[in-house]
Amino acid sequence: MHHDHQNAAASETATPDEQPYQSGLSRRQSLKLLAALAASTMLPGLAGCDSAPPTPDTTPAAAPGATIAEHWPELNLTPVTGKGYGTDPNMILPPESPWPLTMTPAQLSALAIVCDILIPRDGEVPSASEVDVPAVINEWVSAPYPRQQQDRPLILATLSWLDTEATQRFGNNFTKLTAAQRLAIIDDIAFDHAQTQPRFARIVKAFALLRGLVVAAFFSTPQGTKDIGYVGNTAIGGDYPGPTPAAKAHLDTVLRDLGLTAFAWQPV
Amino acid sequence: MTTAQIEKPEVLIVGSGAGGAMAAYELTRNGHKVLLLEAGRDYDPKKETPMFKRNGDAPLMGAATPDKDFGFYDATIDGGWQVPNEPYTSAQGSEFMWWRARMLGGRTNHWGRYALRFSEHDFKGKSRDGLGADWPFEYKDIAPWYDKTEALVGVCGTNTGLDDMPPSPEGVLQPPPQPRVPELLVAAAAKKLGIPAVPMHRAVLTRPLDNRAACFYATPCGHGCSIGAAFQTTTSLLPMAKATGLLEVRTDAMVKTVTTDDKGQVTGVSYIDKKTGTEHSVTAKVVILAASACESARLLLNSKTDKYPQGLANSSGQVGKNLMDSTGANIGALVPALQGRPIYNEDGHTANHLFIPWWGHQAQAEKKLDFPRGYHFELGGRFGEPGANIDTGLQGYGKALKQQVKHKYGAYVSFALRGEMLPNPDCYLDIDPEVKDKWGIPVARFHWKWSEHELKQIAHGLKTAKDILTLMGAEVGELPAPEQAILKGGQIIHEVGTTRMGASKTDSVTNQWGQSWDCPNLFVMDGGVFASNPHKNCTLTIMTLAMRNSSWLSAQLKQGAL
């Protein structure tokens, strides 16, 4: 094990205000990060990013970024070979680290930045990286199951794509950009609408998957679950109380607006 | 689970799920010594149920995986669409999915607990429309046994007075939970179309029963229920049967064949002890198969001898035939009017509180519909616990992103159609001539094809759900073709019919008591005996038949008839 060495290497490659992503305190804490650190070789950029230099698009265009041609990273991914948790896992104490993690520290650091652009700290509510969302994504893309292995190249390609795009636009990796520069890129790929430039069509879809995962992982944490307002999974004594007066009043309004008041449900 | 050692059991039961456990309960209660063999491992819900566990604490936020098809916390152990070391095959051009659970209590540990009685319509479908097969008894013959089963199991719901829902006697049903807001909206929209929505009947206690607690309205029933509120045989029938001192349970006992003597009489079974890999024989006066419809049929077909070259109990040639599942299709939409609604605890008993039973018997009698059998809708949509639902339709980032997610929360309403399928000659199982499982037992091979009846029913259901959703202000969009929308054979996990009962030994495997026509001391007490597969979920009727038929068997044993 070379934890010390790896940590030293990590701190050398990060600028002072851009510390590598460090997993916080939860079940997904240090063990996983250490595993990731131990398993990875430090690379200056993102591991798995092996894209050919894109040909600059010389067509004049007003929109920012429009002078860059569509690019997509070629990933040379080592297949995940770990085993699943099996058909009889301990459900009372779920496995801490069910399979080897595969994301590199550099990938995790980039991911942490994207996570916090998607879900920044909001007053008392922590950001996505503060509640270890990158660790959940790492567990996801490292899982030896078909769905997760289908998602893996899309997630890793998104991170790789961000570096290529950042380099072409601003001459540096995504993690080294200023907040404004990062947002200039994210603004181009975070919306799937009529104004989306054709060259972003593919990354917009991949980014939507990453966003979906980050959102799911964030709201699955205790802080996220509280933030969305879920109030269940708590024992109730006596009968289930049903909708609150406020919820009933809202339903009455909905029924009225839809012309359904006369058909309101009656107990049978 | 420690159990008594039973010397010379009178009755041997294969399987500890709905049918087998009920048979063990009824027989031991009547003083009979029973040995029960279960192919899966021992399982204690009190110690092993992941009560109150959060999705975020599970790998992959609890997402479904090939190891745990219904999510990490699903109660199913060593099971799912594939069981390690125990394959099955599908004939060319067929696709069938076979769900098994290798654990004490079988699939009752995770089932949906929907517990609806079949009606007089359901038992006599052929008399009405000439299709499929009638059951060899009428509703009134089984009604008292439904009463007893519901009282023992504990079912919440109400007597609705609808023709699809025969009433239970006063005091049998426990009170159902209050409906939730999305269900109330569906109910109003459906009512405008003349379609009633009523409380679902579920095998979930809302009042304490025996030493089982009432539901506390938290933690999904599919995880299993350590307090016994959601019915499973491992917290009810099996401990009750064991308390008599007359039941021995052997787990990890994979039955290979039913054994017979020279005269063709059933003598017992031969099984593999999965822990040691060794084969054992046990004998008894009577053998009851309750291993699940497909597993029991496989066992009979694998028990062929010179005397029974087509397999045991198969002089009719019907073993493995008439395989039916429920039809299934899902449709849902975001309901704008429900966006941003006030949040409250909508867990309830964690399944739908209101559902839409089949409302079209009269229309079918008047030949106004182009499909013969009914369906129901199970309603979904509530403030659920966040988990691995990956929404790829979000836009943007930051505060606006969060607002979108919160706005949509609890605003998606879904309809799960579950309908009656008719038996057809293309749907059956036989034995694969080449493939064997780890224990050397030849495996089941499935043949499957939906007929026009099911596809037309699905088309009707999709259109009806769309009409209701549209009245709720939702945009549903273009409906898929029924061929695309219908779920795969086996996917609803209501497979029945493969050892069907009937009035004649020429076209059925057992009589109305589940007693094989060919071997009087061989019984089937799982869903295999169903003559038809009404849309209402099979478990309550499996248990009811097992109680009724075990009671009859007990009387036979006491009279020395077997």
Task: Give the arrangement of secondary structure elements.
The complex is a heterodimer of chains A (268) and B (562).
Chain A: H1 3-13, H2 30-39, H3 105-118, H4 133-141, H5 146-170, H6 179-189, H7 201-219, H8 222-228, H9 245-257
Chain B: E1 11-14, H1 18-29, E2 34-37, H2 45-48, E3 89-90, H3 120-123, H4 125-129, H5 139-153, H6 181-192, E4 198-199, H7 237-242, E5 247-250, E6 253-260, E7 266-273, E8 278-283, E9 286-289, H8 293-302, E10 327-334, E11 354-356, H9 361-365, E12 375-380, H10 398-408, E13 412-419, E14 428-436, E15 442-447, H11 452-471, H12 482-485, E16 522-524, H13 539-558
Parallel strand pairs in B: 1-2, 1-9, 2-5, 3-15, 9-16
Antiparallel strand pairs in B: 4-11, 6-7, 7-8, 10-13, 11-12, 12-13, 14-15
Q: How far apart are the termini of chain B? A: 31 Å
Unreliable stretches of chain B: none
Encode the helix/strand succession of chain B as letters.
EHEHEHHHHEHEEEEEHEEHEHEEEHHEH
Name of the top-level CATH class of the largest domain in chain B: Alpha Beta
Query: Looking across the biggest beta sheet of chain B, what order are the strands in?
Result: 5-2-1-9-16
The residue ranges of chain A in which pLDDT falls below 50 over 5 or more consecutive positions are: 1-18, 29-63
| Main beta-sheet annotation of chain A | none
The largest β sheet of chain B comes out as:
5 strands, parallel
| Structural Rg of chain A | 22 Å
Figure out the total of helices of chain B.
13
Strand content of chain A: under 5%
> What value does the Rg of chain B take, in angstroms?
23 Å
Number of strands of chain A: 0
Number of strands of chain B: 16
CATH architecture of the largest domain in chain B: 3-Layer(bba) Sandwich
Shape of chain A: globular
What is the H level of CATH, i.e. the homologous superfamily of the largest domain in chain B?
A: FAD/NAD(P)-binding domain
How many independent structural domains of chain B? 2
